[in-house]
Every structure is written in structure tokens, then in C-alpha cells.
Amino acid sequence: MKNRYADRRSKLGAMLPKNSAVVIAGAAVQYRNADSSHAFRQDSNFWYLTGFNEPESTLVLLINESKDVQSIAFVPKKDALKEIWDGYRAGPNGAVKFTVLLDLMKNVIFLKMNLELIKPLITKPQII
Hints:
The chain is an alpha+beta fold. It has a single domain (about 5-120), classed as 3-Layer(aba) Sandwich (Creatine Amidinohydrolase, Chain A, domain 1).
């Protein structure tokens, strides 16, 4: 059985131009006050393409010259102290159980890597 989320990412990739990239940020935790937060609801676009329901995650889709789609998810690292207050976090290793993505990385390195990761695949940036 093929993964429905991978199928959705492939369909989106087929609609985009060659050598393009899509960055979709998941939702962040919304705080009521200093020590409590609202119930978490994932961003609909992120959820539709990944099925992953953890805050602070980001999906990057890279479409190459042959229209193949590479999916990279940036997810928060596991943090035992935060899990005491906020509940279980899958982390990069646990996220593989929830969704079929080709590569998973800790979002700590996302800010350092995002431009270097996408730059070689895009010859001429396009805004769609």
C-alpha cells in the first residue's frame, strides 16, 4: 500500500515547475499566558502533505529537473525536560513512524541549511 501523504506530495510536485522548491511551515504552539497553551492544531497544508502533528515542524519539497520530488522534514529534537510539561515529542527518529518522508532533520539546523540546501537545485528563482 502506498502512502497517501507521499502521493499528495508527488501530485503537488507534478504541478510545479522543474528545479523548484516549496517550504511549508507547520503550526507553532499558541500560548494563553506564561504557563499554559491553547490546544495544538497543525497547519492544514502541512498536515495534508505529511500527516505529522507536532508543532514547530517544517516541510521542504524539492522538485528536480526530472520532476522527482524530494521531501525533507525539519522536526524539533527530543527534549526530555520539555516533554515533562508539553507531552511526548517524536523527534527526528520517531517522526519516521508517523510519516514516510525521505529525509528528516532537526530544525535546529534548518536556519543554517535552508539556503544551501535549495540554492543548487534552483537555477532561476520563480515566484508562483
